[in-house]
Amino acid sequence: MKKINLAVVGATGMVGRTFLKVLEEKDLPIDNFYVMASKRSAGSTVTFKGKEYIVEELTENSFDKPIDIALFSAGGSTSEKFAPIAAAKGCVVVDNSSQWRMDPEVPLVVPEVNPEDIKWNKGIIANPNCSTIQAVVALKPLDDKYSIKRIVYSTYQAVSGAGVAGWNDLENGLKGEEPKKFPYSIASNCLPHIDVFMDNGYTKEEMKMIWETRKILHKDDLKITATAVRVPVFNSHSESVNVEFDNPVEVEDVKTTLKEAPGIILEDDPSSNVYPLALNATGHDDVYVGRVRRDESVDNGINFWVVADNIRKGAATNAVQIAELLIKEMQ
Ligand code: A2P
Fold first, then answer.
1. What does the pLDDT read at residue 232?
2. Which of 286, 291, 293, 290 minimizes the C-alpha distance to 262?
3. CA–CA separation, 89 vs 192, rounded Å?
């Protein structure tokens, strides 16, 4: 198997560190490995596969050396500036920021859902929003079978989605300290406010779920609404998903379909209190689905509860899975 040169940009951040962990676990065929971050942490070291690597400062010359794939998680403005520089030098960037996701020239990929879209990349592939990834993994097999007509998302999102600063706000808030990242205390609280508010009254996080679901499922006019809420949970996002279909559905058939779909673990036995939980999903790459039940207020509707590790499947794992697909193509 041909070995590739791979760089991690934002290697010192919460997602960046998880890139390293997932890359180690999946044992990709890597020849030269580079870690990059801002000037602040340049010169520090990270350990990868038992070897120490010095963190390089990301500059306009960082991609002058041959790099096949770069995994970026260093914020939108860093991606805006540096992803095109890397792509122009022949590198394929898998970008975790929201910067390129809705660009019509950039594929937005969840490997279980639309792996074929990586083929038309022009040097940048976007990794979707964490809340969107876990939802579409569960929705895709149902769309294939029953054709989705409308979706209502309600999210319960962990503080790790707001990076180290979000995590610290919950940890310190539990000790009675004032918040630094969020506008209010996240300890003992729920904040119906993730990312900025937009003119239509939705938050950008809610609109990302709407826009990105349509793009990934290739259904530009799909009716979707969303409410995104930050909850005092350290890691793993939970979501209530209400879906209406064009065709009739049976709950048992939905469960079988989900059980057989890639990347999903069905945890659904209410009589034994079995349903997906954030604490159980943390540290795993699968998407956990349960509480599947009929929406009795409409003809062809169901509700379900979906949980996944937002830093792994919602970010790092999804990006590494895209890299795996790229490596297969490069052979
Ligand atoms: P650094 O550690 O040097 O600040 P998080 O989202 O967990 O806060 O992580 C953000 C990541 O993005 C960190 O690795 C951070 O590096 C990196 N980063 C932030 N700004 C830049 C930049 N201008 N150039 C390169 N890396 C950046």
1. 98
2. 286
3. 42
The pair phi, psi for residue 173, each rounded to 5°, is: -65, -35
What amino acid occupies position 270?
P
pLDDT value at residue 138: 98
Whole-number Å distance between alpha carbons of 200 and 302: 27
List the catalytic residues.
Answer: 130, 237
Residue 1's pLDDT is: 84
Ligand 1: does its nearest atom lie under 6 Å from the Cβ of 232?
A: no
SS3 of the chain: CCCEEEEEECCCCHHHHHHHHHHHHHCCCEEEEEEEECHHHCCCEEEECCEEEECEECCCCCCCCCCCEEEECCCHHHHHHHHHHHHHCCCEEEECCCCCCCCCCCCECCCCCCHHHHHHCCCEEECCCHHHHHHHHHHHHHHHHHCEEEEEEEEEECHHHHHHHHHHHHHHHCCCCCCCCCCCCCCCCCECCCCCECCCCCEHHHHHHHHHHHHHHCCCCCEEEEEEEECCCCCCEEEEEEEEECCCCCHHHHHHHHHHCCCEEECCEHHHCECCCHHHHCCCCCEEEEEEEECCCCCCEEEEEEEECCCHHHHHHHHHHHHHHHHHHHC
Q: Is the CB of 8 under 6 A from ligand 1?
A: no
161 CB near ligand 1 (under 6 Å): no
Looking at residue 265, its pLDDT comes to 98
- Write the single-letter amino acid at 94: V
Amino acid identity for residue 177 in this structure: E
For ligand 1, mutation pick of 9, 54, 78, 180 (most atoms within 8 Å of CB) = 78
Q: Which two tokens stand for residue 97?
A: 């920021």
Index of the ligand 1 atom closest to the CA of residue 40:
3
Cα torsion through 236, 242, 248, 249, rounded to 10: 30
Spell out, as residue ranges, where the chain has pLDDT lower than 50: none
